[in-house]
Amino acid sequence: MATILEAAGLRKRYGSVQAVDGVSLPIEEGTCLGILGPNGAGKTTTIEMMEGILAPDEGTVTFRGEPIGREFRRKVGIQFQTTALPEFITVRETLKLFSSFYPSPRPFDEVVDLCSLSDILDRDNRKLSGGQRQRMLLALAIAPRPEVVFLDEPTTGLDPQARRNFWDLIRGIRAERTTVVLTTHYMDEAQTLCDEVAIMDRGRVLERGNPARLLARHFRGALVRIPRGCVEGDGIPGKLVADHLEIQSENLDRTMRELLAAGVNLEGLSIHKPDLEDLFIELTGSSLRN
Q1: In what side-by-side order are the strands of the sheet with 222-227?
Q2: Half-sphere CA count of 279, side-chain side, radius 13 A
Q3: Where are the domains of the chain?
Q4: pLDDT digits (tens, 9 = 90+) for 59-92
């Protein structure tokens, strides 16, 4: 696939703080890249430079091989972390207002259908729930028919059902081969939606790649946890943590057979497969929500 957007050697400093320190991120057309990291990692600053909102101190951002400029701004959609909507007007009026800013916007009915807005078109912007507001903001981001969409923590604060509904909307946009750049604190969201993730900390990209392949490279097997009361005697190899015995297993089938042969009661047993948060802690020693 061709590279549609590329950040190369981006650096940004605020006083004595090096917010972004040499970030390079080529993004292939039609893919979804997730940018992950704790607060203060440099994610939003990186995104704002890639959007053309913030000028880098060093480095370049190119769109289809050319420096970003007016043409890029006509082909990008942005959903910010926070956006002020016009008050005292409806969702319908807001969509028509924002669509009028572009020379060839996406058809109104198409936007409504893609973002599931038909049930709230005549509702005042001030009376939207969190999930409805996020659907509305996504609609404004895709109204110009963009080739690249930036979503900066779009599901923060939504309940689980609203989050999953929003994922379906993003899948619908991706089905049109739109390129998506996503920042999120939710690891299940990144694993579900992203072809690749870039894990950042202290202004640098620590790792980048497909989530499953990154986990396979850094971890083997799984962690088996057994309540202490289910284990008789001291012959089971493992580490006692609080009221559980933890066993690092590289072959779950063999581990289960060994536990059964040793007479271990498997009631209450749990298996933890390493996820993206485990990987981030492995790389930085920090929690993703630190």
Answers
A1: 239-241, 244-249, 222-227, 270-272
A2: 28
A3: 220-273
A4: 999 999 999 998 898 899 999 877 888 889 999 9
